[in-house]
Specification:
Largest sheet: 2 strands, antiparallel
Number of strands: 2
Structural class: mainly alpha
Number of helices: 6
Strand content: under 5%
Low-confidence stretches: none
Radius of gyration: 15 Å
Helix content: over 70%
Length: 124
């Protein structure tokens, strides 16, 4: 149970980091940020909760589209999750295109950190 909570906290921090990076890089794609660091932290928490609760349901419902597009539709699903989280969090607004690109950025950050943690686990 401790490990799962620690993993949730790590995902929360990585989501907040990804959203912060996206707000700095994607101004031309409609990602705007007016607020302080608390808003980004809150958006990271909302995204972590949405990914834990809502994403598995959406993935199962969109499985035919995911299979038909050979997995590329998962980018749209990730973008939708980010779009919903940005709609619920104050101070952050995104277009759907910006949300898809933000989802890609967050996925890359999560993938890199997971790879680093797996390497560290294998070294022990």
């Amino acid at each position: 149970m401790k490990r799962q909570f620690a993993l949730f906290l790590l995902r929360w921090a990585l989501n907040a980091l990804g959203i912060w990076i996206a707000t700095r890089l994607l101004v031309n794609y409609g990602v705007t940020y007016t607020g302080d660091g608390v808003d980004i932290t809150l958006a990271g928490l909302v995204l972590a909760i949405i990914n834990t609760v809502l994403k598995p349901i959406i993935v199962v419902l969109s499985l035919p589209a995911i299979i038909l597009t050979l997995g590329l539709f998962t980018l749209i699903v990730n973008g939708f999750m980010v779009y919903v989280a940005s709609s619920l969090a104050p101070g952050i607004s995104m277009t759907f295109t910006g949300a898809i690109i933000t989802g890609i950025i967050i996925s890359l950050i999560n993938y890199a950190m997971t790879s680093v943690l797996e390497l560290r686990k294998q070294e022990r």
